[in-house]
Amino acid sequence: MPELGDEHKFALAIAAKATALYPPFDSPSVLPWWTSLGSVWLQVLCERLSIQTDHLPDEPSVEGARGLSSSFSDAYHPEVASILLTSTLLAPSSIAKDTSKPVSLLQKANPFSNSTPSKSKADSEATPQFAYNASTRAFIARTLDILDISYRHLLAAEVILSHELYEKFKEAELKSRGEAIRKEKEDGWGGSWGRWAATAGGVTLGGVVIGLTGGLAAPALLPLLPFLSAGTAPIILGSVLGLAGGGLTGYRVRRRWGGVEKFEFVELLGPGEGEGGEDVKQIEAKKAPSVIAAMLIPGIQVKSVDESLDSSKQCRDLFAPYHQDLYVVSHSPEVMLTTGKTLHGWVMSQLYSKAGAEILKRTAFNAVMAAVAMPLTIYKTTGMVVDNQWVQGTDKARKAGLLLAEVLREKVHGTRPVILIGSSLGAMALFEALLSLATTSSTSGSSDPEPPLVDTAIFISLPQAPTRAQWKAVRGVVGRRVVNAYCKSDFVLAGVGRLHEVLGGGHLGGIGGLAATPKDIVGIENIDLEGVLDGHFDISEKMPVILERIGMDR
């Protein structure tokens, strides 16, 4: 792989400046954080490239920067992606020390606190600031797009980065083993780090007592904590990967929070590769942790409480090539099962009756038209029980979404970019989580825009009708992709919408899972699942095919 010359680096810097100046959508208000955080990112990148920003054109256009793509042959593409990634991982000292400059892209020295502790000058110089988050990834992806370089080169660079971090981690263990043994004798197992990791016990998120039970990389990496320096461990473990506190699968609800009986992360791909049951298995690590975390948030279930977990395992092959850690968010599974069974029984006995079948034929499987054409007696005489159960399911989903938002705010996953995929009531939980993050961002009181915590948000068969303002709020807190995957023939979803319309005076139109969002809502990818998804009850089984249609390598 050839190295970039000075002329290539200068062209790259110009493309990066175009990225920082111009968000991917015409309206800057869609991503309010883009230009301010982009200026910091550009400054970091240029210092690493040894290019002075005042030597760059004042306002390079995106089209002009696209013309520079010819400067990079295919052989240079992997190197460009690698340089963009590695150049912005460590904040240059000139920026890290200058507190008058914005540091939104730079991680705080103490990843376990929301405040930055005072440090001596020597400590500041010795401890680098390690950063990789959703906004950084968005800027890199945008720059690659401008230069007509495949996004897959960034995915490959992230795989290499994950392995290199893990190797450095193991190297630190070997170099410090002698010192650790001495400290163990003086302070007990693991010294202060070991005692912290072993007795951290729990933190409070939104009133929920969360406990450390092991999980994300804990079986392999937690015993290594004593062998890391106090400067290296927080940077690599706590800040980026979120490992020092047990990570995602290290947190689960110990007591009910507003009726949420269960809320936990089950690891499908990752260092621990735990799976199902009441406890996540703690087994020997099989691979290095990833700098990207992906979460599947399922909805209703029809067969068993483990239905979504079992089907989610079929998605592992979509994430494994890119070395992304994959989790399932298990939330109120008993309620999701009861809701699914109740809805399934109602649909099969009433809506798919002989009369219903004829209506479906006449309406050519247009779900909304068919739902409206159904006799009102079907909804009025048999729908109350279904409506009550559905309302309970949506209530649990929304509360799970609020808890997910708290987990993201507290950076339990670390600062690494996170991909969130919600289906059915899980999509509703995801939407609620992002709305909560948007509310926090707008009421923080800070003049600086909050950086996004989420890289990509995917809604599959979203069972609610968001307003334009809500879609805009959700779009504003996501770094790259917001996807609305819909199915016009989802008669189950249309039937539930019609049920609410008849019994509660709701409005059937605008349900996200039934149609594309209005064209005036900027920044939402609408993906039609026709030919992939037959109906709402097929989501779990068809999840791998659905994600292939959406494209997880984009």
Notes on the protein architecture:
- The chain is an alpha/beta fold and 554 residues long.
- Among the domains are: 6-150, no CATH class; 333-442 and 451-550, no CATH class.
- Helices cover 47% and strands 10% of the residues.
- It is built from 21 helices and ten strands.
- It has helices at residues 6-21, 34-48, 62-66, 77-87, 93-96, 121-126, 134-146, 152-187, 191-199, 218-221, 232-241, 307-312, 316-319, 333-351, 354-362, 367-373, 376-409, 425-442, 468-476, 491-504, 539-550; strands spanning 202-205, 208-212, 251-253, 263-269, 293-297, 325-331, 418-423, 454-460, 478-486, 525-528.
- A seven-stranded mixed sheet has the order 4-6-5-7-8-9-10, with helices on both faces. Strands 1-2-3 form a three-stranded antiparallel sheet.
- Helix 16 (367-373) packs across helix 20 (491-504).
- The longest helix has 36 residues, at 152-187.
- The protein is globular and about 75 Å long.
- The relative contact order is 0.10.
Radius of gyration: 25 Å
Straight-line distance between termini: 23 Å
The assembly state of the depicted protein chains is: single chain
Global mean pLDDT: 76
Number of helices: 21
Determine the structural class based on helices, strands and strand pairing. alpha/beta
Number of strands: 10
Strand content of the residues, in percent?
Answer: 5-15%
> Could you give the order of strands across the largest sheet?
4-6-5-7-8-9-10
Which parts are unreliable, with pLDDT below 50 for 5 consecutive residues or more?
92-128, 188-231, 274-286
Q: Could you describe the largest sheet, including whether it forms a barrel? A: 7 strands, mixed
- The coarse overall form would be globular
Percent helix, as a range, is 40-55%
